[in-house]
Specification:
CATH topology of the largest domain: Rossmann fold
CATH superfamily of the largest domain: NAD(P)-binding Rossmann-like Domain
Number of helices: 8
Helix content: 25-40%
Bound molecules: NADP nicotinamide-adenine-dinucleotide phosphate
C-alpha cells in the first residue's frame, strides 16, 4: 500500500536548518512541500531562492495566509524563539501539527503549548536536538548519572547561536536530574575569582557553553568517580545529522494527539 503523502510547510526556508530541511523533503517520496513562511520574499516560490531545490511551493510572510491557502498537515519550524512561539500557537489553532527544532523555549512555555495541543487534540513535537546520536548521548547520560552523581556538561556551538545554554544541554540536565542523587559537588569553600568561571548551576552541577566559529553542535557529559572518569560525547559534523530525526518526527507526529518534548519520546 502506498504511503500517505504528508503536506508540509517550512518556516525559516533561508536559514541553515530550514534549507537543509527543504532538501530532505525534496528527497523523501511521501513528503510534499506545499508552502514556506519567511520574513521576506512574499509571492516568490521556493525554486526562486538561491541554493534551494526546484519546487514550486509559494512563500508567504503571513503564517495564517499560508495555512489557509495551502492546508498543510505539518509545520516544520527552524526560526527564532519569539517567532517559533507565535508559529506553534497559530499551528495549533489551525490544527496543523508543529514539528519544532527552534530552541530557547522555557519549561513553562512548553507546558502551555502542551495544554493547547491537548485541548485541540493536535499532535506536536518540540525537539531541542534532532540528531539520533545526540538523543542516545542524553539517554546514556541519564543512565550514567545513577552511578556517577558528580557530573558536568560542556556544550559547544557555532558563534551565531543566540541562546545559552543550548536546548540540548538543558534537556540533558533535566534527564540527569531524574536519576542523579543530589550531592554537593566540588569544594565546599570554592570561590569564583572571576564570576561565571564555574558555569551555570543546575541543581548543584554545572553547564559550560562554548561559542566559536568553526563549531557546529557538540556536547560532552563528564562523570567523575573515584579513580575513573567517564565521558559521553556527541558531535554533529554538519546539518544533515539532524535530518533523519526531523523525518522521523514528521512521520510520528501524524499519529499523535498531544505535544511531546524531545526526540526520545518517539524513539524509545
Ligand atoms: P538561521 O540560519 O539563523 O535561520 C533562521 C531563519 O529563520 C532565518 O532565515 C530567519 O530569517 C528566519 N526567521 C526568523 N523569524 C522568522 C519568522 N517570523 N518567520 C519566518 N522565518 C523567520 O538559524 P539555524 O541555524 O537554521 O537555526 C534555527 C533554529 O534551530 C535555532 O533556534 C537553533 O538553535 C535551532 N537548531 C535546532 C536543532 C535541532 O536539532 N533541534 C539543530 C540546529 C539548530 P531572517 O534572517 O530574515 O531573520
Amino acid at each position: 500500500m502506498a504511503e500517505q503523502t504528508i503536506r508540509i510547510v517550512v518556516a525559516g526556508p533561508r536559514g541553515k536548518m530550514g534549507s537543509e530541511t527543504i532538501h530532505m523533503i525534496h528527497r523523501t517520496p511521501h513528503f510534499e512541500l506545499v508552502g514556506a513562511v519567511d520574513t521576506k520574499n512574499e509571492g516568490l516560490e521556493i525554486r526562486d531562492l538561491e541554493g534551494l531545490p526546484d519546487i514550486s511551493a509559494p512563500i508567504y510572510t503571513d503564517l495564517e495566509a499560508c495555512f489557509s491557502n495551502t492546508t498543510p498537515d505539518v509545520l516544520i519550524d527552524f526560526t527564532h524563539p519569539e517567532a517559533g512561539k507565535q508559529h506553534i500557537q497559530t499551528a495549533l489553532a489551525y490544527k496543523v501539527r508543529p514539528v519544532v527544532g527552534t530552541s530557547g523555549f522555557t519549561e513553562e512555555e512548553v507546558q502551555q503549548f502542551k495544554v493547547k495541543a491537548d485541548a485541540s487534540q493536535v499532535g506536536g513535537i518540540i525537539a531541542p536536538n534532532f540528531a539520533v546520536g545526540a538523543v542516545l548521548m542524553m539517554k546514556w547520560s541519564q543512565m550514567a548519572a545513577r552511578f556517577f552523581p558528580n557530573v558536568e556538561i560542556i556544550e559547544q556551538h557555532h558563534d551565531q547561536k543566540r541562546d545559552a545554554p543550548s536546548g540540548t544541554a538543558i534537556k540533558t540536565a533535566e534527564m540527569i536530574q531524574k536519576d542523579r542523587s543530589t550531592v554537593r559537588q566540588g569544594h565546599p569553600d570554592e570561590v569564583e575569582t572571576i564570576p561565571g568561571a564555574r558555569g551555570a548551576n543546575v541543581d548543584g552541577f554545572r553547564i559550560h557553553s562554548v561559542r566559536l566559529p568553526g563549531l557546529i553542535a557538540h556536547q560532552q557529559v563528564l562523570f567523575g568517580g573515584e579513580g575513573e572518569l567517564l565521558t559521553i560525547r556527541h558531535d554533529s559534523m554538519n546539518r544533515l545529522s539532524f535530518m533523519n530525526g526531523v523525518q522521523l518526527a514528521v512521520e510520528e507526529v501524524m499519529k499523535l494527539e498531544t505535544l511531546v518534548y524531545g526526540l526520545d519520546t518517539i524513539m524509545f
